[in-house]
């Protein structure tokens, strides 16, 4: 069978509150594309089996455990499974893409976000069930389920791979994403690039190259920018002395902190404090 990733996307509002019709884990036994499925709702699936999917007007594409698909409302899909299996499924109503919107891909190959996706599907299904059983807070639970689904939907464009080499880099990319979170959790500590490489489990040269390829800057620059961003927040929202703020963001040398702060922002920390309180609260 031919194999290609469908070019289709479904526009989806960035500020939508999805209206969920049903969510859960379901069995599927279809062989040889014998049945077509067409629904007035969108259907988001996380497949736990191997087989093929055929979107209306597109060539079949191979499914493996962890593949995520979006069947658009009003368009047919058909399946040819290697063996019976199960998938997570959420049916939700279409929404007008008024204002800012994003294109949701119809197919996302398995990647490092698989565990997160499975957790989100389970979370949406559990909240939806609770909303139908709970007599005290059904509306709150429905909105919580909708928020969890919206978070999952907006993650799809980020999770979709863009080229044939992507599958070879997903492990390193996942390590870099974990490292970004680790950096933010240890912002008050003076860390070095060799230490960050060890934390990521990557060689220093490979980490440096992959980081620049993904984000367009060095990891040292990213670390400095994150420190200065946190310093700007503390200057705008606290009365901590500049020296204390410098230490809290991992730059204990006040002179070096002042120099780097001025280099990145164009002003001194004290001047930034004077003008940022109004600007910060205005943005909030």
What does this structure look like?
α1 runs antiparallel to α2 and α6 crosses α9. The radius of gyration is 24 Å and the shape is elongated. A hairpin with a 5-residue loop joins β5 and β6. A five-stranded antiparallel β-sheet has the order 2-9-4-7-11. The chain has a four-stranded antiparallel β-sheet with strand order 3-8-5-6, with no helix packed on it. It has helices at residues 114-133, 138-159, 166-185, 193-200, 204-215, 219-237, 242-248, 254-265, 269-283; strands at residues 9-13, 20-28, 36-37, 42-47, 51-55, 61-63, 68-71, 77-81, 85-92, 101-105, 107-108. It is an alpha+beta fold and 284 residues long. The protein has nine helices and eleven strands. Mean pLDDT is 87; it is low at 1-6, 162-168 and 279-284. The longest helix is centred in the middle third of the chain and has 22 residues, at 138-159.
